[in-house]
UniProtKB/TrEMBL annotation:
Keywords: ATP-binding, Cytoplasm, Glutamine amidotransferase, Hydrolase, Ligase, Nucleotide-binding, Purine biosynthesis. The keyword ATP-binding applies. Part of the phosphoribosylformylglycinamidine synthase complex involved in the purines biosynthetic pathway. Catalyzes the ATP-dependent conversion of formylglycinamide ribonucleotide (FGAR) and glutamine to yield formylglycinamidine ribonucleotide (FGAM) and glutamate. The FGAM synthase complex is composed of three subunits. PurQ produces an ammonia molecule by converting glutamine to glutamate. PurL transfers the ammonia molecule to FGAR to form FGAM in an ATP-dependent manner. The lineage of its organism: Bacteria, Bacillati, Bacillota, Bacilli, Lactobacillales. It is found in: Cytoplasm. It catalyses: N(2)-formyl-N(1)-(5-phospho-beta-D-ribosyl)glycinamide + L-glutamine + ATP + H2O = 2-formamido-N(1)-(5-O-phospho-beta-D-ribosyl)acetamidine + L-glutamate + ADP + phosphate + H(+); L-glutamine + H2O = L-glutamate + NH4(+). Pathway: Purine metabolism; IMP biosynthesis via de novo pathway; 5-amino-1-(5-phospho-D-ribosyl)imidazole from N(2)-formyl-N(1)-(5-phospho-D-ribosyl)glycinamide: step 1/2. The keyword Iron does not apply. One of its GO terms (molecular function) is glutaminase activity. This is Phosphoribosylformylglycinamidine synthase subunit PurQ. The active site is at C86 (nucleophile), H193, E195. Its EC number is 6.3.5.3, 3.5.1.2. It holds the Pfam family GATase_5.
């Protein structure tokens, strides 16, 4: 499997993503600048966390207009696997690939800690490798408070689009939401950082299962 790791001005988790899939998962990856216009030859797209374009206007609002975004939207619409983490989640909502929006944490403070998540849908292309109902991943965000209107929430619940929920809801997200997919199930956005939890040396390994799930799903499809 070959991953494209998108690099925006202000991305700061791109190297972490690369390390997770290359050094820990054993797959291929390439750091792809926001100025690229093609995803030819890639099997999955990873949009990392950070502060794309300094988070001016709104988080992800400027990145949504980067040259690479039409290719990402087309890739997703064709069924390709796309993962957006933290700022990447915000970019995906701004681009319309995922419903809802991310607001400031209810505490109005930046939160950086390990948090427990419940895998609410284990039967996705991002969670199929997990054999446990709960995992622990780090979070690091100031605007991770997920919101959508009641009709959208009900639709996501009915479709199984809510993939991860917080057990302690640190940011005030509606329905404890930590990660969701689109209706087709091939685009995942989440605030917690799986790429920061892929080796025992750093204290957590629960993030590796997500990348393993993506690799398995792609190889099965091939």
């Amino acid at each position: 499997m070959r991953f494209a790791v998108i690099v925006f001005p202000g991305s700061n988790c791109d190297e972490d993503m690369y390390h997770a899939v290359v050094d820990q998962l054993g797959e291929s990856a390439q750091l792809l600048p926001h100025t690229a216009t093609s995803l030819a030859g890639f099997d999955g797209v990873l949009i990392p966390g950070g502060f794309s374009y300094g988070d001016y206007l709104r988080c992800g609002a400027i990145a949504r207009f980067s040259p690479i975004m039409p290719a990402i939207i087309d890739f997703a619409n064709q069924g390709g696997l796309v993962l957006g983490v933290c700022n990447g989640f915000q970019v995906l909502t701004e681009a319309g690939l995922l419903p809802g929006a991310l607001h400031e944490n209810t505490s109005l403070e930046f939160i950086c800690k390990d948090t427990e998540l419940k895998i609410t849908n284990p039967n996705t292309r991002f969670t199929s490798a997990y054999t446990t109902d709960t995992i622990t991943l780090p979070i690091a965000h100031g605007e991770g408070n997920y919101y959508c209107d009641p009709d959208t929430l009900a639709q996501m619940q009915a479709n199984g689009q809510i993939v991860f929920t917080y057990t302690d809801n640190p940011n005030g997200s509606v329905a404890d939401i930590a990660g969701i997919t689109n209706a087709q199930g091939n685009v995942l956005g989440m605030m917690p950082h799986p790429e920061r939890a892929v080796e025992a040396l750093l204290g957590l390994t629960d993030g590796l299962g997500l990348f393993e799930s993506m690799a398995q799903a792609t190889k099965t499809a091939l």
